[in-house]
Target: Glutathione synthase/RimK-type ligase-like ATP-grasp enzyme
Amino acid sequence: MAKKVLIVTNSFDLHADLVVPLLTARDCAVFRINLDAFPRDYQICQLFTNNKMSSEIRHLPTGASIDLAEVGAVWTRKPADFAFASEDLSAQERAYAKMETEHALFGLLYTLDCYWMSHPVALRGAMWKGEQLQRAMTMGFRVPASIVTNSPERVRAFKESVQGDLVFKCLSSPMLGAEAVADEDRIATGLATTIVTDEMMESLDAVSEVACHFQEYIHKQYELRVTIIAGRIFAAKLHSQDDPRTAVDSRDMSAEILYEATELPDEVKERCLVFVQSYGLNYSALDLIVTPEGEYVFLENNPSGQFLYVEQLIPEFKMLDAVADRLSQEAACRI
Model:
């Protein structure tokens, strides 16, 4: 009997919503954990007796359950804050409940010897922007001149050394932490990659509060979103310079710029594959620039990056099918 696919995500994940029926159509059974409803809507049991372990997860609203020995593939998508049965937990009770839940859940999941897209350990190891830049350089990519520092003096010196403009980029999330606080506590909703102005340079002492990331601004012919799914490459060419709203940061989806499929040079294709595989990832999305001179420049790697919007703009990519194909194939071969 073929094994099942376990999806670990949240209840707002449209990617998972669309992949589940594709897996079902391939005769692949699926169990989904929505972390924003966990553990409130779930029961877990990890039992060690007679030198053996057994593990089960049950979804209380539906009664569906899975024996983790039945899992052949895991798709880890997006995190979320845990939800608990009691809504009136004190701050300390909630902190303790979160720590215990994390230990219980991942102490259970990490026992799985199966196919992962991708393993949480690999995801965490691949998320650090400074390390990404260093690794990309060692693999032959050009990277922008960059600095991460909480020293205003270092930033001023770096600005003097750069020919042209400087940009500020968030290291963790362009949401500026807005996703981690209640609505009433939000003072800003985000910050795109931004060219540093003279006025900003005059306020540079604020850098001493927290380490900040600055890069030289590299002029673009176009940008690339290179999504790698189980060794398959989907390279999207973004005509970001066609609209001033996306000239500096292509993530402004209010601008209807052209996305089209493109073919990477063999050496760039191989470099992207080796970069992603070096982390042990089975999925990742890389952002690159192609300069007016035709040089390929590495910007960053997104080990859990979104891909649905790219497929919607380039329907021939069929990335949802690529995910479903690999998960179902890996589950089927672990009988």
Notes: The CA atoms of residues 285 and 302 lie 5 Å apart.
